[in-house]
Amino acid sequence: MTDKKEKKPAVAKIIDGKEVANAVKESIKREVAGMIDKGGNGPHLAAVLVGDDPASQTYVAAKEKAAHAVGMMSSTYRYPADMSEQELLEVIEYLNNDNEIDGFIVQLPLPAHIDESKVINSISPDKDVDGFHPVNVGNLVLGKPGFISATPYGIMELLNYYNIETEGKHCVVLGRSNIVGRPVSILMSQKSGANATVTVCHSRTKNLPSITKKADILIAAIGQPEFVTADMVKKGAVVIDVGIHRIPDDTKQKGYRLTGDVVFDEVSKKASWITPVPGGVGPMTIAMLLKNTLQAHKNKLEAGKKA
Ligand code: GUN
Fold this sequence. Notes:
Blueprint: E1 13-14, H1 17-37, E2 44-50, H2 54-69, E3 73-79, H3 85-97, E4 103-106, H4 116-122, H5 134-142, H6 150-161, E5 170-174, H7 181-189, E6 197-201, H8 208-212, E7 217-220, E8 238-241, E9 245-248, E10 256-259, H9 264-267, E11 273-274, H10 282-306
Parallel strand pairs: 1-11, 2-3, 2-4, 5-6, 5-7, 7-8, 8-11
Antiparallel strand pairs: 9-10
Helix pairs in contact: 1-10, 2-10, 6-7, 6-10
The structure holds guanine.
């Protein structure tokens, strides 16, 4: 027998995206109910779906269901995959001018013959609740009010909900995509945001583990399953996993398991906080889309008062 105390592996606290998303949706629901009680219509979200990609259909159905659950109106405009770019631009023009619609999204990806950036650029920034339009991206960079895209916005909400200290911390972002890596790196560095010191790493970064090991907050958004291993993480780090991947697994009834960009089992023994996959960042995206839609509605009411 030895009297040495056995060292228990530290287990990170879970950043529960479902709980936070539910809290955000509950708060939206209360606000929408208040608007309707006062005789208003409440917000109206629209989605444009081109083609029959099963994943896109699932996402759009989930957005519609979530909108209804918080008392919002929701409309989905469905078109065949061979719709022309011009026809889609005309639909967008119609939605831009329809005062009943507060915000809308064009579900991506679009068929190859349609220019995605031309489509995004044609959405009115006031209705761009995805936050993809260059005006909204520019406002985010400048720290001005605008729509922040759902995933980076959701990450900020998660950190905020759990009162995770960010000021002066070293945040390492893995990935520089327009949708996640770049915007979250900007929000994390902003004085009005997380006020952290930020390093952005990507596919050409040298000695990546030497950088990730210095992170107090590590945001993994590289789109590679189980890329981040425990030896790449500092003890006590906060780890945000943005990835979601299906890995074939015969032991599962569905024939696959879901995993993120992080090896959860080993990293969770070293981190202080961690987002699971599923149930971490994922549930936040729809909640933040609804938050943007509510904001679009409030902006419209405010603009109507001034007019
Ligand atoms: N496809 C996958 N995620 C998204 C999203 O957040 N918005 C849109 N418009 N399309 C997507």
